[in-house]
Records
---
Amino acid sequence: MTVTTAQSDRRIDPETDDAAGGGTQLRRKKTRGLDKRNRPLWMLAPGGVLMVLVIVIPVLLAVFISLLDLDQYSLREWIRAPFIGVQNYVEAATRSSMFHAVWLSVSYSVLVAIITLPVGVAAALAAQNRFRGRGFVRSVFLIPYILPAFVVGTVWRTMLQPGGVVNSLLETVGIDGGLWLNGPQSYWALVLVQAWSSWPFFYLLVLSGLQAVEAEVHEAAALDGAEWWTKLRYVVFPYLKGPVALAAIISFLHNINSFTLPFVLFGVPTPYDVEVLPLLTYLSSFQSFRFGLSAAMAVFSLALIAIPLAIYLRAVKLDTGDEGHKK
Amino acid sequence: MNNKKMLATMAGFAVVALSLQACSATGGENNGDAVDGSGKSLNVLIAANTLYPTEQQSWFDDVSAKFEEETGATVEFETFASANDELTRIQTSVLSGQGPDVYSLGTTFTPTAYSTGAFVTLGDEEWEKVGGRDKFVPASLGISGPDEANEIGVPLASRPFALAYNTELLAEAGFDAPADSWDGLLEQAKAMTHDDQYGMAVAYADNFNPWKFIWTMSLQAGNPLVVDGEATLDDPTTVEAYRTYFEWMTVDKVVDPSSVGWQTAQAVAAFADGNAAFLPMTSATSAVTFDKSAVAGKYAYATMPLIAPGETSAPQGAIEAATIISGDNIVVANYSPNQDLAFAFIKMLTDPEQQEIYFNTFGEMPTNAEAAETIQSENELLAPLLDAGAQSVGTPFSGAWGDVQLALGNVVVQLIPAIASGAVSDAQIEDQLKSAQESAQSALDRAK
């Protein structure tokens, strides 16, 4: 509460100044000007250089490569590869399965986020209160998350193959499991395995959110006679909005970019039902050596994903840096 | 001012990066005719041997010691774990113009490597430096380059594909040897399929194995798949090849139903457990597994059938391909400052002594004719594999082959659900082959 008051006070001040007259405004401008000049902006240089090297240059290179006919024949002197304008983009849009791959990636990432969210929240709520063996339970919860994707992929591949553990178990209850690593079911296998390995991420962030709820709030809720569900719904959940929104966005981006897990699970060439974007890009780059085409796919999808992402960030106010105050 | 400082910092970075690059690029120099490598070191990139990791390590040490004895230079080996790892390493080196001096490449990757133009073309002089072109088994040179004047790869090891069979199961069923036609082999397989025992072990879900069947059967039916830059993947002979391959599961039922999800290792394991009579399309390295398994002493190798499906004798125009030319080629990077040393190293590895050591250590067939003869006379079990190697046919030498191979494999991958459901129609095969043909042709059209 104090924060809000202080903030609004600060916000009101200049308006009062404005109303006071032009002289004050001039002074304010001058002060602001001085402040701006004296800001030690050069201290941003190391970060700026790093950002240019790590982000800006590679992205610009990707855009540049996407305009070249770069393949194994021109790789050695790639800078001299023929410039072909937007032809790679046209090919990616019309003659490749890029849109199918983007749809698969986006839909499965959203599904995984939707599935893992309640699991993570439930696990965090269960592991928040003190009980005997809580440390152990908390550690066990983290196992899927700390296992390397390669290991997760290999183990699940073994379990899901025809005649594997999963199908044998299903058979004991009279269900024919069918094919998990190819065909329509493979999409659900990917969702399942990705959800299994990534739910502890939600759990971690929600747990940290829960720990930020002050004891006084719990006490106040108890004094007001709130039932557990009322307390959870109206007192605790509002605190979790920030961490959950953040977890959702990170999980979504992580899944969109996930390469190792689908690669290990399904291999290359990939079944059409799980030909997600990273696998398609990999196939074009490293199996067909169409570096220009795959760069075009990457840039295309970057734009395709960045737009809804920006809208989401704005909606959950993760981009303004002040979501903490709006709780 | 701030901008200037930032620019200066970036310029500094650039200078450091360039000088580092310059440092690493000047590693040694060419000493003319005499190969004196004193104080130098040759960098070699080679596949990590997962079957014999410890043996490979000591082989590295022995080879380096021997090379130092001969030339004064040591050999630094680097390994790559998978074909993909290999690709990435080669791409990085090709792009930056620095990296290993010598690469050991899979044979089917040689055309792609050739198309990058990053490796030394072997003229008379270079062949002489490695001990002469005629010291090699002729068939092993079939995928060294597009033609004799433009070769880049020196054959290092041969891993021809052949058919492993369970001698005990064949004898029980009254067969002396595997049939020489695919139809004959199928009939034998049917006779040996009962209870939990299957006629064949086939890895349908492997990423590399299936296309070799299709390639072999198509060639034997007279369709080389690529002729003068034109793909012929949609030819009826190829449809027949896929149909035969799928029907082993869906119609003839001579393979384990689970094999729809098998990779090569699982097919090898099924044969090693004694559950399958034939293991087609396997190489000599499988002997390592067999010798420690239930089939130890009860297995033998034969060349793959040479008569196409649906035929009783080779049709007109047939190419009697027993196997693709499989194994490793060794190439020298254009950018290497140690090319003479590199050729001296290749000479050493491809001379009979080292070739026999290589065979004894890793079980991979020699490409050196003299060493091959010695081994053939000493090792009855592996003689058929050497025969298969002599009857091997190279995959088309085109930078586009990678895509053609991918397209052939992709047909199987996309039809796996149909195989599992028990029926693959010709329409389904033709439909998949249509897009395979398109992508293969588009890759061939791009080939330079």
Note: Chain B touches chain A at residues 2, 5-6, 9-10, 13, 84, 87-88, 91, 94-95, 97, 112, 115-118, 205, 207, 257-258, 260-262, 399, 402-403, 406, 409-410, 413-414, 416-417, 420, 443, 446-448 (CB under 8 Å).
---
Amino acid sequence: MHHKAISIQNLHVSYYGDEAVRDVSLAVEPGNLVGIIGPNGAGKSTFLKAMLGLIPRDKGDVEILGKPVKEVRKQIAYVPQRNDIDWDFPITVRDAVLLGTYPRLKLFRRPGKKERQWAMECLRRVGMEEFSHRQIGELSGGQQQRVFLARALAQQAEVFFLDEPFVGVDVSSEETIVKILKELCWQGKTVIVVHHDLSKANDYFHQLILLNKELIGFGAVSDVFQTDIIAKAYQGQFAFMKEMGV
Amino acid sequence: MEFIDAVLHYGFLQKALLTSVMVGIICGVIGCFIILRGMSLMGDAISHAVLPGVAISYMFGINFFFGAVLSGILTAVGIGFVSQNSRIKHDTSIGIMFTSAFAAGIIVITMLKSSTDLYHILFGNVLAVRASDMWITLGISLVVLIAVYLFYKELLVTSFDETMGAAYGLPVRLIHYFLMMLLTLVTVASLQTVGIVLVVAMLITPAATAYLLTERLWVMIFLAAGLGSVAAIVGLYFSFTYNLASGATIVMAATALFVLAFLFSPKHGLLWKTLKTRRKRASLT
């Protein structure tokens, strides 16, 4: 049976009555790389967390792979913003990736040889295997982001959510990450990326969700990436528009 | 030597030694999670908050264990409720709730007119440990160590990246309160040895020392447990030999170990950091 990867109906989220996300409805087909863009304070991260069921919603339904989020949590991988992580935590690169195997381990079960090998394989995919014994704080921003992508890969999920994965990341890491995200989509996985920078949106994504509290635009990049639509989202923030050259 | 001799001869000293070593171990283990979650103040709060529970248990003649767990958990819930439902920040909420619980405890104890008991609860009196106290401590230690062993995975994920845990379906709120319950148990076990006022030192100091010495959580846990028990033994020695308050000497021993790690830790120690900086600067001239 064919399911949408994500389907959202009339989603409303507020913080104690202050609206953060207003009446968003959309559906994403599997195999898409989707960017969520919008100005600062547009509720992008809130929207992402509401989709994942991490914060309560006031109204609306979210279905992932045709089911309520609660029933498909093991099919979802989430990569947090880099500044949400304590980089001094006593954990090595390999062990951080190994966390990705935890959702599929039963209660009281420890990761074994199979899990460790799989974690190393995921590290290899992001080109970080030689750093496996480093403490995570010893890495550069781009390397840290690649390690967290490896952790998401280790989860063997169907739908991936990444919150601002390119902030403070060097060019070559960014290229590696984008390449892997595109590969995931070829394999039929769905990838949702919160992204604050308009400049690369064109090259990176298949679809865009343009958000400023409410849904301003959604669809193929070429359809959404229009001067008038972008202007509506970034009301008055024209510096952005010059940067991207629309 | 005299101390070892005395340990071999006196039952009360054996009980004191065993109890404080157990306390050193479990405080070290739970302390690792407390400091990594940035909850040191919470550790202080919960340890103080058991006082009214202990006092009320005394009043009704039941084992203080039950009262202590109840008042510890209630305070933890109260702290969460106030900070989530107002603009009051978490640390402020902690300050309000635990001081009021502590004050309530002092009032109840003064009503009982038993100031010696208050003194012992606040500052510990390890040389007066009875066999029953020792068994309670042993029971608590087993519960705490088994719980940490069984739920290590969940404790690791939620300490490192709580959002990831929530995203794949862990009951993060429940795990938080479960840890608070373990913390209360550890506090109760430590009442006799170091007393309410200084429990937080046994939770934080050995764990912080271990944190400076390793980059792996499980190593940190074992180190903290080891450092905690060394501090307990050394502290008890000084307490016995020079007739000093046991809680204070144990905490000072833990602090001494921390200072050593702070200065000489191979990777994070002040000494090596300074030397490395000097060498680098010298190489540039």
Note: The CA atoms of residues 188 and 259 of chain B lie 27 Å apart.
